[in-house]
Amino acid sequence: MSENLINLYYVINANDFSAAGEASGNVKKKLVQLGIDPAIIKKTAISMYEAEMNAFIHANGGEINVEISNNRIVIVISDKGPGIADLDLAMKEGYSTASDKVREMGFGAGMGLPNIKRYSDELDIQTEVGKGTTVRIIVYIN
Amino acid sequence: MKLHEIIEILKAEVLTGDRESQMEILSACGSDLMSDVMAYVKDNVLLLTGLINPQVIRTAEVMDIKVVAFVRGKIPDSNILELAREKDITVIRTEYPMFIACGKLYKAGITGRGADC
Ligand SMILES: Nc1ncnc2c1ncn2[C@@H]1O[C@H](COP(=O)(O)OP(=O)(O)O)[C@@H](O)[C@H]1O
Ligand SMILES: [Mg+2]
User: Which of A28, A78, A109, A135 is disulfide-compatible with B33, CB 3.0–4.6 A?
Assistant: First the structure.
């Protein structure tokens, strides 16, 4: 099941707004090259981009590990940010702690985590206040 | 509707891409919040936004949106346009504010929902 494994690693730099989201674009390109179904690529790219932007906006950046195998894409985004105190609340549509400054940048609609939930096949979030957050997203290829 | 017709309706300036484009546009989404744009998936979408930054192009990329229209006469800077060219995204700009731009396109027949916005 896990032959042809591709591993990709990216750092999310907290100081470079224009580069944020670049990793998601790269993974998308890779999936296109692999000839994966466009609908699956879109689900993957949106989920990863929202999580990447969350790490950038809420957690001072972080890192991303992507594993592409024959039957699934696994994306793990981890940060050493403030963590999420109430995850159920954070998952609600429209809930956001983003500052006005972040909103002016087009984020902070409180739709990121709900979007990830909607588009991924599996979502697991491990978070601890003061320690950080790890978001694990799985999208199945078949 | 063809993209070149949209360009005419919006009296838009073409900043990247082809002004005579025959690309078919079926629906549009007008929003300044990128997560709202990503909430619903549709094909052949035009994104109208008053937000000017590289994340607009990145959002378009993940959504397979091929055309971005900046409204209210805003002018994107060169690194945004460079990113758009790299991603093969057409960028146009119109003097019309968001409401008017959307209204004109809706009236002209673009009634398909792009996103819930
Ligand atoms: N990586 C993270 N680190 C800390 N807090 C986070 C992280 N991701 C999400 N959050 C919290 O969850 C809330 C909801 O996230 P999301 O649905 O993506 O909305 P938004 O990013 O627009 O605020 C955020 O406002 C923030 O409080
Ligand atoms: Mg978010």
Answer: A109
Q: How far is CA B34 from CA A121, A133, A140, B40, in A?
A: 22, 22, 25, 11
Q: List Cα–Cα distances, A91 to A54, A88, A140, B32, in angstroms.
A: 13, 5, 22, 21
Task: Please check whether residue B62 touches A, CB under 8 A.
Answer: yes
Say if residue B109's pLDDT is above 70: yes
- The domain segmentation of chain B, as residue ranges, is 3-107
State how far the Cα of B85 lies from the Cα of A132, in Å rounded to an integer: 36
Q: Which domain holds residue A49?
A: 4-140
Interface predicted TM-score (ipTM) of this complex, two decimals: 0.93
Integer Cα distance of A64 and A37 in angstroms: 23
CATH fold label, B3-107: 3.40.1390
CATH of the domain at A45: 3.30.565.10
Q: CB of A107 closer than 6 A to ligand 1?
A: yes
A61 ligand 1 Cβ < 6 A: no
